[in-house]
Amino acid sequence: MQIPIAKPFIGEEEKQAVVQVLSSGQLSQGPKVAEFESAFAAQHGAKHGIATSNGTTALMAAIMAHDIGPGDEVIIPSFSFFATASCVLSTGARPVFADIDPATFNLSPEAAEAAITPKTKAIMPVHLYGQPADMPRFEAICKKHGLVLLEDAAQAHLSHINGRHVGTWGTTGFSFYPTKNMTTTEGGMVLTNDDETARKLRMIRAQGMNTQYYHEVVGYNFRMTDMAAAVGLVQLGRLPEWTAKRQANAAYFDELLTSVRTPYTKPGHTHVYHQYTVRVPDGVDRDAVAKRLNERGIGVRVYYPLPIHRQPVFQQMGGYENLHLPETEKATAQVFSLPIYPALTEEERDYIVQEINAAC
């Protein structure tokens, strides 16, 4: 049996939506992008959606829209994909890494607040693996210290805290990479409830223009195509059902996996399981377990094996070489993720449970 870590779905409806755009002749950002922006924002309870070319440009635009740049610091977790940090660097600001909550793997509010300095301009929690970070706490911390609140929701489409969706707490970047919970084949989205921030975002993603050929700010070509948006509109309609299937698969694993620590979900938080990430017990060789499972046809992956602050580029940059984040470093040595995609069959789920319980 061969079970991949992810299995993106593109059906006939998505294909026909692309053909219709191709036939229309409107290929770049156009009416489908506007429709997708409105639909995605409405589904998450946000006022504005600004589509971009990918999740990285969504985060870059979100940071730039708040005039964050050289001399500023942005507090982020080190346990995340590299783009969380590179987006900060791209503005000229400096990432400041804080440790995680070992139960949720998300940025610790206590650690983030302790990292605040006079140079701190923003805090950007990541909703890692699909579980919301502790946004009520981060909202209170940012208000207390006069900081910008950002969200990296690249993995967290439709996740929420007591009914309030991610994307409505701060300026938020989402990703539609092929393996995400929904895709546009490649793309991103920024959500905000602030009119002025939305105006800036629309200029930043379109070469700094609000009126054609009049450039108010330095912007870039971060635009989404109408073909990508057409795919996104179809996938957005599928997203609630797909989310429910991911959650059902997770509940199945929660009940039957006995040899690893299954994901903890904070009360009131809705986890959407972009990844179902387990943790091996102390003393168990995670890499050996992952290797065995891959040899047995189960495409497990380690997200992420090396903390961002330990990446070569940051070690060469200076100022990070002596940084020690104990919970982050322990997690990177113990976690691995299982297939959790909606098309997973009962037979495949049983096989995964059997092999993992035997491997640890």
How many domain regions?
A: 2
Give average pLDDT, whole number: 97
Shape: globular
CATH architecture of the largest domain: 3-Layer(aba) Sandwich
| Rg over alpha carbons | 20 Å
Could you explain how this protein is built, in words?
The protein has 360 residues and is α/β, with parallel strands linked by helices. It folds into 2 domains: 12-233, 3-Layer(aba) Sandwich (Aspartate Aminotransferase, domain 2), CATH 3.40.640.10; 240-359, Aspartate Aminotransferase, domain 1. The protein is 39% helix and 15% strand. It has a 7-stranded mixed beta sheet with strand order 1-9-8-5-4-2-3, with helices on both faces. Strand 4 (120-123), helix 6 and strand 5 form a beta-alpha-beta unit. It is globular and about 65 Å long. The model has no long low-confidence stretch (mean pLDDT 97).
Provide a short characterization of the protein structure.
By secondary structure, this protein is α/β, with parallel strands linked by helices. The protein has helices spanning 12-24, 31-44, 55-64, 83-90, 109-114, 135-145, 195-204, 226-256, 286-295, 312-317, 326-334, 346-359; strands at residues 48-52, 73-77, 94-98, 120-123, 148-152, 160-161, 164-165, 171-175, 188-192, 209-211, 214-215, 269-270, 276-279, 335-338.
